[in-house]
Amino acid sequence: MFERRGGSTLGVLFVLAVAVAGTAAIPAFAAAGPDTRAGTAPANAGGGTQCPVGGGAVGSAAAADGGADDSGPGGASTASAASDHSLASYPEAPRTDVARGDIAAIETGITRGETGTVRIESVDGEFNVSLTFANNDGRKPAELYVNTYLAGNETAVAGLAYTAGDNDRVAVEDRESVTGAPMPVGAYDVTVETRSGTTTQRLTVDDPAVGDTTLQRAPGDRFGELDSDEDIVAAREAGLITEPPMTDDGPEAALGDTMVYRLNASGVYGLLAAQGGATSEANFLAATGEEGPFDLSITSSGDCESAVDVRGSVADGTARVIPDPDSETLYVTADLRRVAVREGLDRGFRGPGRATYTFSGGSHIAESDTTTAVDYTVAAREYSYDADGGILVRAAEPGQRVAGETNLAPGTNLTVNVTGLDRDYETSARTTVDDDGSFGVDVDLSDARDDARYTASIAQIDDSETLLTTGSAEATAVLFEEYASASSSEADRVENARVALEDGGFLAAYRVPPNEQVTREDLIGRSGYLQPGVHDPTVSLDRPLTRSENVVLVAHRDGDGDGRFDYPADDSPYRIGSDPVYGVGRVLLDGGSKPPRNPQYLGVTLPPADEITGTPVPTATPTDEPTATATPSPTPTATPTDRAVTTTELPPPTLRGTDTPTATPAGTTAPNGTGVPTAANGTAGPNGTAASGTATVTDGAADGFGPGFGVTAVVVAVVLFGAAALSRRE
User: Would you tell me how many other CB atoms lie within 10 Å of the CB of residue 199?
Assistant: First the structure.
């Protein structure tokens, strides 16, 4: 498979900053969960820490305790129906045993077109209210909803405190004694009187409880389908909402999965419904404030900090709130690739994190401050192909299997694309991720050319290209378009390239000269040795680029098997026909101008090593014991040596068969005054290298790319030559 660069995971502070909406103010609050574990922010491809934001503002959500007054939602009225606001926080089935602050659903038994009286009276007699209930539609049994968060408030005993489903109506007739806000814990008798008779049932209000917070995941492409508690239940039953695999840092989901933060708690659903909004998201926003009984924060445990604009995320549909009162569960779902963030920041988060619910002491939910949290990790999308080294060898026929594994959530839809290197062919097939993370699909390649090279990729995962060949095509290719250096002064490496090597080798970089004809003289860098297969290597530049330029990356064999890059002495380029295997792209310096994406007259002439002939220029050998001679002149002199010293900007390798070159007496003198041996054709290059097909011998000073003298020997020789020259001039 293609090797991914290390440090692909961003450290995250993912925070839900919730504000009061509607007629209320819009404050934010800061709260971080306790005992946050330390995490390490990953390095980006350039080797630095990449954070989506600096600073540490933490947003969260809170809700104001206490009952509503006449001016807000739930104010007194003569009648109420539940059909004009969100029913997401209302139970689906009859429910007469509820937590304080939740909503009871009482089956009245009142038939179609009939009106009855409903009395709710506490066993101790402190709570007593009489209601008139009218069943107007009769399409289902008439249900009375009692919001225990509002029903105990003397100024809000109607409105949203008592509601009915569909077109049924409820009105408050009388009340003798109403205490507490919300409705007190205890047992209540519910009596229903109609023309048909009288029935009694028991309503129980219990203390609310705070359970755990967990992380679940769903396919990213199913985010829009999770819009209600019924959708959540159905997705769980279908295996689309699953528990992420556990790691040492907690559960781990992939960036692009739908994150499902699940709070198990009771006592909050009546508070949400009391806001009277048209959606659960609107109610969640409207129920929040600085002094509320609970708040949610999702924070980073790494070095990077960021904050999600929850109001913006809710507005553009990238975060949702889904109450499930029947299961006493509150879900917050988020698409972390697209959530809105603070101004000036890119969307999307990944890395270590913690989701924390904090419940304030003294509220109707908790007597003392209570927190529940989950630590987790959001990893970069990962993949691998079921192929030796990641290179797919297939036939130009139907039913060609492409399979592998990914860390995306089970049920995620994947599209496998097969594309020609010259974009002259394209086909695709769709599949889904299995429960164990595997995927596989048969691709029809009957229209593909035989003995040709293609790329296979997964549309849902960036940088997932691998090489696919048909027939006996060469299993080597270079894919490169652009690398942006973080520096504005120079680029000392090339990244963002992908190379497939049939037999292993190297990836070398060549600058594109003004005439756009690339030769071995334009070599500026190389990678380390690469095993057979597919890689994303870093190509180190011996000659850093000081401006944005086009660069050709060429795949080279390890011809002599020594694991060192030796071209042009050895390690010839991979070839298809007579052409080297290469890719051309741009290296951009920060803030620099961009060269054309594709050179217009590009030519790459890199002959095989055995076609490069000539006599190598030897490296000078110093005398065994050079001795300086003192003279009356202040200029010191040294015993001269009769061997020339040659250097090059990029230390070239040794030609095959010249492991220990012997110096040749100088036949010519270079412009810099150093002796240069005569080349095979009697000419010498301007930098001290033999021209017209003669390769230079390295001076041994760098990288170990061939034998030669070390740096010390060269320096000593230079000093001796300088002294000799001065002596001759005198």
Answer: 15
